[in-house]
């Protein structure tokens, strides 16, 4: 079988390097190598299921599920091997950050809290969270990754944009790490809510409706969903609807009114208002260029 492997360098500077790797039809037991530079932090987002990883500076082999991630510090140059089995696709997003850049950003001398954050990063305490399992990406992390991958400007604007998004990713990771008191029951409830929304966002649903159908109190739905995914239920529903609308808008055979209904809007004007707020242009203007 032909091996369709793509490694794309999205950005490279003195302090930051971003690579997306995709092996769409890997041969059985094929391996990809990821290099970590000396005194650097790696943010590794696993975007396909059942990725196995073995690092030469660690005796343990890891198995990652889709949408899990790690934040790893390497004091010396090291190589990690990643592979899947049974000819499964392999896709990951790797951000490598220079240690001195993180040091200057956090400024550990400024407070004990900042010093503790850097110490946790160096000791790799951010790799495994709840019950020794790698953490899962939040909805907001997914959105940031999409923005990083699709950003098209170059030069200083690109550098500033990427640095801002990486800082936001680190903030989300630190917040997630500090939420250790979240119980498995609460986590399970959040996942159940998200699953329901993912399957029904195109319908006219509200927190009250989700509560009735899942048996979870609507106030609890709002609180736990925001704590887990860092956005409100309404904002998440709107985000899913707009992503679907943007995909459909390029098909000129589908009327705007049909798209609005398909995306869960009873009235076209409400759809148009939401679309313009999200993308800065009306559906008609985006469609007609």
Automatic annotation (TrEMBL):
<protein>
    <recommendedName>
        <fullName>HTH araC/xylS-type domain-containing protein</fullName>
    </recommendedName>
</protein>
<keyword id="KW-0804">Transcription</keyword>
<dbReference type="InterPro" id="IPR053142">
    <property type="entry name" value="PchR_regulatory_protein"/>
</dbReference>
<dbReference type="InterPro" id="IPR020449">
    <property type="entry name" value="Tscrpt_reg_AraC-type_HTH"/>
</dbReference>
<keyword id="KW-0238">DNA-binding</keyword>
<dbReference type="InterPro" id="IPR018060">
    <property type="entry name" value="HTH_AraC"/>
</dbReference>
<dbReference type="InterPro" id="IPR009057">
    <property type="entry name" value="Homeodomain-like_sf"/>
</dbReference>
<keyword id="KW-0805">Transcription regulation</keyword>
<dbReference type="Pfam" id="PF12833">
    <property type="entry name" value="HTH_18"/>
</dbReference>
<feature type="domain" description="HTH araC/xylS-type">
    <location>
        <begin position="191"/>
        <end position="289"/>
    </location>
</feature>
<dbReference type="InterPro" id="IPR018062">
    <property type="entry name" value="HTH_AraC-typ_CS"/>
</dbReference>
């Amino acid at each position: 079988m032909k091996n369709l492997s793509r490694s794309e360098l999205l950005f490279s500077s003195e302090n930051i390097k971003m690579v997306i790797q995709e092996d769409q039809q890997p041969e059985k037991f094929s391996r990809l190598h990821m290099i970590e530079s000396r005194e650097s932090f790696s943010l590794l987002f696993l975007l396909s299921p059942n990725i196995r990883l073995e690092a030469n500076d660690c005796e343990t082999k890891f198995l990652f599920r889709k949408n899990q991630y790690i934040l790893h510090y390497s004091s010396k140059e090291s190589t990690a091997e990643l592979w899947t089995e049974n000819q499964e696709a392999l896709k990951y997003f790797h951000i490598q950050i220079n240690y001195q850049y993180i040091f200057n950003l956090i400024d550990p001398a400024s407070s004990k809290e900042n010093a503790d954050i850097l110490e946790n990063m160096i000791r790799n305490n951010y790799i495994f969270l709840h019950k020794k399992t790698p953490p899962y990406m939040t909805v907001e992390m997914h959105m940031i990754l999409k923005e990083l991958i699709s950003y098209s400007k170059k030069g200083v604007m690109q550098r500033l944009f990427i640095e801002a998004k990486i800082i936001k990713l680190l903030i989300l990771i630190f917040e997630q790490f500090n939420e250790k008191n979240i119980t498995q029951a609460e986590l399970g409830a959040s996942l159940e809510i998200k699953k329901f929304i993912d399957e029904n966002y195109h319908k006219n649903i509200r927190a009250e409706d989700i509560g009735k159908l899942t048996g979870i109190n609507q106030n609890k739905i709002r609180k736990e969903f925001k704590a887990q995914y860092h956005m409100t239920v309404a904002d998440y529903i709107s985000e899913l609807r707009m992503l679907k609308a943007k995909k459909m808008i390029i098909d000129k055979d589908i009327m705007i009114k049909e798209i609005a209904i398909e995306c869960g809007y009873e009235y076209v004007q409400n759809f148009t208002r939401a679309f313009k707020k999200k993308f800065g242009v009306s559906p008609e203007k985006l469609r007609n260029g």
